[in-house]
Specification:
single chain, about 425 residues, alpha/beta, Rossmann fold, N-(1-d-carboxylethyl)-l-norvaline Dehydrogenase, domain 2, 3 domains, 6-stranded parallel sheet, 18 helices, binds uridine-5'-diphosphate-xylopyranose
Length: about 425
């Protein structure tokens, strides 16, 4: 099919490249000229494993190109809207300005029979409003939420674990178009749920709300474990063996961050309040509060370990991204911890395999070093806040040689406490004995 993808960020760039690999003819459209230039040269403007290879191969096939010109959409019959919906500056609601701008830019280039497919995460009710406008051009609207995880985005796009189509009044034409677009996934037996707009929109936010709740649940247990002298990692293993609960997303630590979970639970709460159902998701405020408390807890542990003050002490912060295998620092717990400790007067030296450039753009006041050894050398305290394999695989004995104070805070419960203790370290986990 001839496809346009509006918005070439973490979602759209991967979607465009994957659709081209699957045989479609794709144009990616973005307002950011620098991003378009990099993508056109086969260079991803952000780090995502496998994307560089996918991008290069898709461009070489002649089926993928990028432009800033919205008129390029005129040649396409299916238009994916993949722009961001960040948190508004002055509140918790989702900021829909980019979605509206994408539809505005597309509007003059739509032809009767085209299908506009929303992928962005939006407050329930958005698609119904947009559909009215799209309909005036003779085009149709469908909503097809995206569930990709950063770090696994290429895999999740080519082999999603489910497809959700939100359509109006059982609109079979849109379903047929989406079935053609996603023929590869459907051949693999991917479950497909066809529903209305509101359900499709809610599927996305409720999935993220559930995941956030699962993480905050185990982090709440971690707080109790700390008070009671129990071990949250063993607790998670034990309850995780119950197939109804499952072990995934039960890793206690410094909590969730990123461009999705934090802002999506806040936007969901704001939308539920607008619908007069704030009480139904009031627990999400607790989920958010528990999550943010874990960041503060790491800071308090650091102060405690350094004898009540961090002023002038060198703290090596390992990781700045919100999770490993990504360069994304949006709402990153790691960066929050580093910034708080710097604010308390510590000599914070942060390192990360991929996130330093993005972190520096947001927080230029921090000291960053590329080299892990430079971060560790002479440190009074080491804090692991993003579980990159480079850090979880550190040899405690060799690391001991580099530092001034052998104290480690494992903000992700990713290290073996016995091995670190045996090598002479003082180990502090999150809700671990
Ligand atoms: C998430 C959803 O998983 C994805 O389906 C949706 O489309 C977008 O939002 P992503 O933001 O890439 O994806 O990250 P995810 O892997 O879900 O991790 C989110 C955060 O939770 C990370 O900061 C991670 O470190 C943290 N996390 C995850 C935990 O603290 N504990 C866990 O057990 C799992």
């Amino acid at each position: 099919m001839k496809i346009s993808v509006i918005g070439c960020g973490y979602l759209g760039a991967v979607h465009a490249s994957a659709m081209a690999k699957l045989g479609h003819d794709v144009v990616g459209i973005d307002v950011d000229g620098a991003k378009v230039a990099r993508l056109s040269a086969g260079e991803p403007p952000f780090f995502e494993p496998g994307l560089a290879e996918l991008l290069t191969a898709s461009i070489a096939s002649g089926r993928l190109r990028f432009t800033t010109d919205p008129a390029a959409a005129a040649a396409a019959e299916v238009h994916f809207v993949a722009v961001g919906t960040p948190q508004t500056r002055d509140g918790h609601a989702a900021d829909l300005r980019y979605v509206n701008a994408a539809i505005d830019s597309l509007f003059p280039h739509l032809s009767p029979g085209d299908t506009v497919v929303g992928k962005s995460t939006v407050p329930v009710g958005t698609a119904a409003q947009l559909a009215e406008r799209v309909r005036t051009t003779g085009a149709r609207l469908a909503w097809n939420p995206e569930f990709l995880r950063e770090g696994y985005a290429v895999h999740d796009t080519i082999e999603p674990d489910r497809l959700v189509y939100g359509v109006e009044n059982g609109d079979e034409a849109s379903v047929a178009v989406l079935d053609t677009v996603f023929a590869h996934a459907l051949e693999l037996g991917t479950p497909r749920i066809v529903t209305d707009f509101a359900t499709a929109e809610l599927v996305k936010v409720s999935a993220n709300a559930f995941l956030a709740t699962k993480i905050s649940f185990i982090n709440a247990m971690s707080e109790i474990a700390e008070a009671a002298g129990a071990d949250v990692t063993q607790l998670a293993d034990a309850i995780g063996h119950d197939a109804r609960i499952g072990r995934r997303f039960l890793s206690a630590g410094v909590g969730f961050g990123g461009g999705c979970l934090p802002k999506d639970i806040r936007a969901f709460t704001a939308r539920a309040e607008e619908l007069g159902r704030g009480e139904s998701v009031a627990f999400l405020k607790e989920v958010d509060a528990i999550n943010l408390r874990r960041r503060q807890h790491v800071v308090e542990l650091a102060v405690d370990e350094l004898g009540g003050s961090v002023v002038g002490r060198k703290i090596a912060v390992l990781g700045v991204t919100f999770k490993p295998h990504s360069d994304d620092v949006r709402d990153s717990p790691a960066l929050d911890v580093a910034v708080s400790l710097k604010g308390l007067g510590a000599n914070v030296v942060a390192t990360d395999p991929k996130g330093i450039e993005n972190a520096r753009a947001r927080h230029p006041q921090l000291d960053y070093v590329e080299n892990l050894e430079d971060a560790l050398r002479g440190a009074d305290l080491v804090i692991l806040v993003t579980e990159w394999p480079e850090y979880t695989g550190l040899d405690p004995a060799a690391t001991w040689e580099s530092v001034a104070g052998a104290v480690i805070i494992d903000g992700r419960n990713a290290l073996d406490p016995d091995a670190w203790t045996a090598a002479g370290w003082r180990y502090r986990g999150m809700g671990r004995r």
